[in-house]
Design goal:
mainly alpha, single chain
């Protein structure tokens, strides 16, 4: 019953996002072609799965997958000449300072601690290969390659190796992710981190005794690391706990001990990372910035997006109240904001989904902005084509995942339960928090996994071999 409910909820959200995506194409661009082509692509992928076996030698497959990741991204980053701006400019500058040993603290980082995580990791690549945008872009490609390999191995635990290979190829060719690989952003690293955490969690499921606990602990520690890059790694931790609770066959005591251990380790690890960051900065720091992002997420006027008024309010609270009380104060302000008009707030939380789930064109948007900031020329027709291509693929994935959810309920076969819970976790966190179009990037591998399972279910209807 619980599994059916999870997949029922998954279908409702996927169907809603698909309608938002279709509506966005039609209302914003008067574009009926993109939804039609996405349906055709979805059908085509089912037939591709039928005829493309991908059952060759493991090392040959790794070579094919690697080339599929690397070649289009290298061609893309050669094509565009971007300048890091906005948050991306902050990341680039901090990484440069870390690499050159000139970092002298940052009040912004003291308020938003996770801005340090990605630059710190990137700085090691800068130390090895020099400070430049191409080095950051190559780092993105390496993270995406590792993510593709991890997705393959994770999925192969729950479904056939053939379907897992097909899913990894789909993940490698996501158009929006190819375009976004030129941006100096946190998403590629964070996605790799959470997939690595899930990989070790899945490994733990296969083991018993001490090795089981060690792999669980390793998964949690990687999530602590991921949380220093994007403060939403708790989504994966909660999903893993839910999976242990409802899916594992161990006794209740063992389940509770495992979950308590994971939560305690995550809390202690996060505290330790915060202490190290505070020592590096030399100034008082907030524990995390979730209170701020939830406060912004409740802003109806600005559709739950970043805005200068809410940021100024956060700075005011930071400067005038004890830092350990900051999240509590911001959450109280959020509640007061909701209480002013509960019905409007409820509708806001549903409609703001359009900001983050209605389009997959953020990779194109940020490339245009990053090229034009220095007076570069970004071809408008090229931009429209790339955005349409991104959304055709994205809408096809939503459609396949939604159909897969329905067919899983019908057959009572829930191989993708972990992916479903993780995806719903991302949906939940972005309902309550600040949103931007690019924020759904880390959810894409889980959407792709669910879409691949949908392809498998549809292929079964067509009497296609699944294994």
């Amino acid at each position: 019953m619980v599994k059916k409910s999870i997949f029922g909820l998954l279908f409702l959200f996927l169907a809603y996002f698909l309608l938002l995506a279709f509506g966005n194409s039609i209302a914003r661009f008067n574009d009926y072609v993109t939804p039609i082509l996405s349906i055709i692509l979805a059908i085509g992928l089912v037939f591709c799965y039928k005829y493309i076996k991908l059952d060759f030698n493991k090392w040959l497959y790794i070579a094919v997958l690697s080339l599929t990741v690397i070649v289009p991204r290298l061609l893309w980053i050669i094509t565009v000449d971007i300048t890091p701006i906005s948050d991306f400019g902050v990341y680039y500058e901090l990484a440069k300072q870390f690499a050159e040993g000139t970092f002298a603290g940052s009040d912004y980082a003291a308020m938003i601690p996770h801005v340090l995580g990605y630059p710190f990791v990137l700085s090691w690549f800068f130390r090895l290969f020099g400070v430049s945008v191409p080095v950051a872009q190559i780092f993105n490609i390496i993270c995406i390659l590792i993510s593709s390999l991890l997705l393959w191995r994770i999925l192969a635990t729950f479904i056939s190796d053939r379907m897992a290979r097909f899913a990894a190829i789909l993940f490698a060719i996501i158009p929006s992710a190819i375009f976004y690989s030129s941006i100096v952003s946190t998403e590629s690293l964070f996605t790799m981190q959470i997939l690595l955490a899930v990989y070790f969690f899945v490994k733990a499921l296969k083991l018993e005794g001490l090795r089981d606990i060690l792999f669980l602990a390793l998964s949690v520690l990687i999530l602590v690391w991921a949380n220093s890059v994007r403060p939403i790694a708790m989504v994966i931790l909660i999903a893993e706990a839910i999976y242990i609770l409802f899916q594992m066959r161990d006794g209740r005591i063992f389940k509770l001990i495992s979950i308590v251990m994971m939560i305690a380790l995550f809390a202690l690890g996060s505290k330790a990372v915060g202490m190290v960051q505070a020592r590096v900065l030399g100034v008082p720091m907030v524990v995390n910035s979730m209170g701020d992002t939830i406060y912004k997420g409740a802003n109806i006027e600005h559709h739950g997006m970043w805005n200068p008024e809410d940021s100024a309010e956060f700075v005011h609270v930071y400067e005038n109240f004890p830092h350990e009380d900051l999240n509590k104060i911001m959450l109280q302000k959020t509640w007061d904001r909701i209480a002013e008009n509960p019905m409007a707030s409820a509708m806001h939380y549903l409609t703001k989904c359009a900001i983050i789930w209605a389009s997959d064109g953020y990779g194109v948007d940020w490339n245009r902005i990053s090229v034009e900031v220095e007076g570069g020329d970004y071809n408008a027709e090229f931009e429209v084509f790339n955005e349409r291509l991104s959304n055709i693929f994205y809408q096809a994935m939503l459609l396949l995942a939604a159909l897969g959810a329905i067919l899983a309920i019908r057959r009572g076969k829930f191989d993708g339960i972990l992916f479903a819970v993780i995806f719903l976790g991302f949906v939940g966190i972005f309902i309550i928090s600040e949103v931007q179009g690019r924020y759904h990037y880390p959810a894409l591998p889980f959407l792709i996994g669910l879409a691949a399972m949908g392809i498998g279910e549809l292929a079964r209807i067509k009497n296609t071999e699944l294994r």
